[in-house]
Every structure is written in C-alpha cells, then in structure tokens.
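Instructor's aside before we start: the two examples that follow are unrelated to each other. I chose them only because their records fit on one page, so don't look for a connection. First example below.
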Amino acid sequence: MFKFFLKKNFCDGWDNFFFLILSNVITLAVLVGSFFALSYSGEASPYLPNLVFILCSGVLMIDLFAWGANAAKIADFRDSTFSVFFMTLKSVWKIGFAFGAFVAFVLLLARFAISYYLTLYFRDGNFIGLLVTAALGWFLLVCVIALQWFVPLYFLQENNGFAKCLKKSFIIFYDNVFFSIEVFLYNIVLFLFSCFLLMLAPGLNGITLSSTNALRLRLYKYDWIEKMAETDPSFENDRDRRNEVPWDELLAEDKESLGPRKLSSFIFPWK
C-alpha cells in the first residue's frame, strides 16, 4: 500500500506541478510576512514575538486549510482550481486559524516547559528534570506525527469539526503507528527537498497533498472493516483479522484510475 501511495503522490504532484508552484507563492508570501513580523516584534518587546508567532501560525494554517480542498480533489483524481481555494477560504478561516494558533500555543508551552526542566537538570543536577524533558519530547513528537492527519480529515470526512479532527488524528495515529511514521518521514524528505527549491515545490502545499493522499488510501481500511463488521459483528474487535487488509483489492480501482505511467507521460504530460 505504501509503495502505491508513493507512486500516486509523485504522479499527482507532477501532474499539478505548476499549480503547486503558484499555490506555494501565496504560502511563501505568508511565511515571508511572518518572518518580518516576528523580527520587528522582537525589537518592540521581548514578549511580543510569542503572540505574533501564534497569530502568524493561525494565518499560515488558514492558507493550508484553504488549499486542503484542492488537495482532496487531486487525491480523488479531480481537477484543482484557484476558485476552489478562494471559495474554501471563506468557510475554513475560523478552524484554520484555530488549529494554527493551537499548534503554536502547544509548541510554545513545550518550549518553555522543556527549557525549565532542562535548567533544573543542568543547574541543580535534578534527574527528574531530564526524565520530564524526555517525556515532553516524546509527547511533542507524537503530537506532530498525529496532527499531520488533521487537515486531510477535515476534507476527506464530512461533519468533522475541530474537536473531531483532533480526536480522530490521534485515533488514526495509534491505529496506524508505523504507517503514520512512514508518511511523516516521507513528508520530512519532501520538506528538505522543498528547501532546495525555495519552498516553491513541493512546498507546504505539496506536503498537505502528501498527507491527504496517504489518509485517503488508508481510510479504505476502515470502509472495509465496517463492511466486514456488518456480516460479523465480532470482526471489528479482532485485531488479528483487522490487520489482514486486502490492499490489492481495495486499491484496485485507484490503480486502474492512475494507470501505468511511462517516463514519456512525465516529460510530455499532455500526451
């Protein structure tokens, strides 16, 4: 399944390469604006950057949320347009800002907490400080990996508000730990590659597409479990049987829709 995800995500990214670049220009403008806002706020007051960081994170996430609608369309083999981006912008700015501000707030809390407990360890030799720092580090890592599913969940499933997306993000993580880690590491590779291309491609929008593609395919597992549970109610609680997912069968339609992609199709996509 993961191998097919890599292939599909690459094909989707390549087929929408120029659209991704143009979309990332908007995201890059928000990032540059946030950088200058943080820089100037630091000169005004040593405490103001924390508030500006939360505000800028909220604005950035509004942009990523608005693009999440296009990511869901691309993942579902449909066309993406800027009209979808601007139409979605009106309806998701509240949850986008709330999620961005929430993530920024958690990061700031973790930063201050880790700094405090590390100081206890190095200054006073308090070993408890080191243990708490390690626990906070692992907790933060789990949160980051789990929350990569937040935006895709909002667009791939109906009736998902802030609380539901938050809850389901951790449910998806704990039920698919290795898969979540694999996608997270893949997204890190995409981010590092994006740095060489000035965040224009695949960029943060490309990473959003990656998470959306991954989750869309993974959700087939839960459709299959629900279908099997209709005929055998005990199936849902049987982890051994649940893990025997017939991925070839579940991905057959997507594989047919994607089709065999030859090298010439990447060089000459219009053919």
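Example two begins here.
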Amino acid sequence: MDDRRQKNQLELAFMEEGRSEAPTASMQGTESSAGKRGIESPAIAEQLMEEVCGRENCKQALKRVKANKGSAGVDGMTVQQLPEYLKQHWPVIREQLLSGTYEPQPVRRVEIPKPDGGVRKLGIPTVLDRFIQQAVMQVLQGKWDRTFSDHSYGFRPGRSAHQAVEQAQQYIAEGYRWVVDLDLEKFFDRVSHDKLMARIGTRISDRRMLKLIQSFLKAGVMEDGLVSPVDEGTPQGGPLSPLLSNIVLDEFDRELERRGLRFARYADDSNIYVRSRRAGERVMASISAFITTKLKLKVNQQKSAVARPWERKFLGFSFTSNREPKRRIAPKAVLRFKERVRELTSRTRGVSIERMAEELAQYLKGWLGYFGKCQTPSVLQGLEEWTRRRLRSVIWKQWKRGTVRFAELRKRGVGKELAAKTAGSAHGPWRLANSPGLAIALPNAYFDSLGIPRLAVG
C-alpha cells in the first residue's frame, strides 16, 4: 500500500466524525442514548470521548499504531489491515465509544525473557484496541502530563531515560552519595484496579471514559485459547498502560516531594539520593511502608538496596566514584551487549558475513543510540575492539581449511611468509583474530565497508 492510498484511507475512515465533535444546541437539556444507559450525558460531563473520536486525534493515533507495528492480537488482524477495517466500520465503532458501549477484546499473552532471568509477561491487545488506546492516551496525556512531577521521566513527551540518569548524576555531584534503589515487585501485574480507577476519577468526570478504561483493565487474558479474568494489573503491551502507571506512581512522587527527598523515577524504576547510609536506611524503611500500605504494591527486598551509586545500576548506567562522577555503562549492560553480539555472530547461524554484518550493524546503532551517552570512552573503545576481534574470529572459522585461509590472506594483501605462518598456525580462532596477519587482511576499514558502526568516536 503506497503513501497516497494510506492517506486516502485515513481520510475516508474518519471523515464522518468531524460533524459532531462538539455538543450542539439540540443536545442541551435532552437525554442522550448514553444517558438512557446510565452513563453521564456528554452535554453535562467533559467532552473527552468527543476529543478521542476527533478526526485529527484519530489520524495521529492510526499513524502511531502503524509506525509501532507489532503483532496481531487474539482476532488475528494485522496493523496493515487496520486502515481498511476502520474505513468500513469506524461509524459503528465511533457510536459505541460515544455511547459508552464499546467492549475491548481480551489481550493475547506472550512471554519474553528478561535480561537478568525469568520472563516478562506482555498482554498484546488487538490492533483495533491498540488504536483506541492510543487515541485515548493522546487526549489524556495532553491534559495530565503537565500535572506530573518534574522528577518523573518515563513515558512522557520531551523526557527520557537519559535525563533521569543525568539528574541522578547531578545529585551525586552535589554530595548525595548514597542511593536508595527501590525495585517494585511485578509492578505492572500488581496495580490495584480499584485504587487506579479512584485516582483517575479525581481527574476526569466523563463516565464513558471511566467505563472504557475500566473495560481495558478487565478485558481478560487469552492463553492457549482460554480467556482468564484479570482482577489487578495493567498489562504491558498496550499504549495506555504507561500513562496509567504514571497515574499510580504520581502519588509516590508527591510523597517523596513532600518529604523533600531528591529522586529520579522512570516508570517503576526509582532512585532516591541521600547523604548517609543511616539516612538511606530510614528512607528505605519508611518509603517501603508507604508503598505497601498506601499504594498496595510490594517492594522486592532482594533487588532493592541502600548502597553507593557506583555499586548499583540505574536504567542501564552506573557512575564512577570520582568527586565529579561520570556516567558509565553498568557491568550487566556490558555483559548483555556481549551476549547479544555472540548470538548475532554465531557461526552456527549459517548466514553470509554480509547478512551477519547487516543485522549486527542494526543492533549496534540502536545500542549506541542509548549507551553512547556514557562518559567513559575507553569502555566503548574496548567493546569496539572486542566486537571486531569477534568478527575476525568468525570469518577465520568460515574460511575453514588451511589452503583457503592462505589464499584469502594473500588476496587481501598479506605477505606470502606471514600468510603461510598464519594459515598453518595451531592457535585457535580467537587468538589468531588478534594476529598481525588478520589485522592486515581484515582491517577496521573492511568492517566500515560492511556498514558496521564504530562505537568509539573521535
């Protein structure tokens, strides 16, 4: 489907709703079909659902869902099929949203491995429900975001994990050299629906919107063809879940601010910075009690700690212990990097070096986009050298026999004597990958020609 056809489908799908985005005079003082169902009349309540169904909001939501791609939900509909479906069915869907009768479908349960072991359970809504959640999220975020704490950095426009790390770094530089590192156990699975809806109810009065959000929370989970009810949690995987998580933890942010504490939070990952261990232990005890009693959540005691910042990680980074601390890549993040590079460069994959380089380059660019913000270039240099040595080792294995190796070395400019010595060596591929012969045959410029980015710049 070309861009022009996509644009036409967007216009056709949402051409009708612009006629009634605001209440008309005839709506004033009359009972709507929504009112007959016991749902507050749009003429009396906020017009949030009208904003959700607005043409520009829906067009933006559809573009976002298509850009995010993602797999199909329980109904099997793909992102590519969504525009045509909306073109045919949007008037009915819109009426259901405006009357408060729309019912989401169950989410599809998938499990992905966590970097530190275990699995993370995701709930994948149907693409239609993802589109509606995105449209709702855009409207609510536009109204709510400015009310959130300045110390909250996750899932917010113009804010990032890097900003949270930089804020933490500033606290350490100011002398707050102890950290209360809090880990909320299975946060997204444990959120109380009643408490969440009560919090949302203080912010909006459109009962259709409240009913829709509650329907998303209680839509159920499909596993192995069976649908199970959901009594708590906000399933990760839908566009609305991150915003709801910020609503839940806004109460946490306000409590920390009330106490005058210095902290940075990104989603459920929060660090509080204090001047001494004793102060940290006091904060850990009192805040853990607040989380348990007020938020009805649980602190993971095994993963939480009071420690020096350079002994902990925050959003993949750690810090040096200098008087002027620098951002460094956390050791676990370095290990995960090497594990992933090993997977991508495994010779058992049976792919060409060009295909391997293409996939590796894609990973390295994404990784560098995040961890390139570290302030320890020697670590990046070391990882770059390790990665290139890994590739030389893989190529050496692909050449297999001594005669092939000798011919390849000669073809790539290695002298006859050095080529013969290298090809006939009894040393293993990893050691030979650091040899003069392979350095000549496979220089950094060769990897540059394959499109593999350099990690250490300058």
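The chain is about 50% helix and 10% strand.
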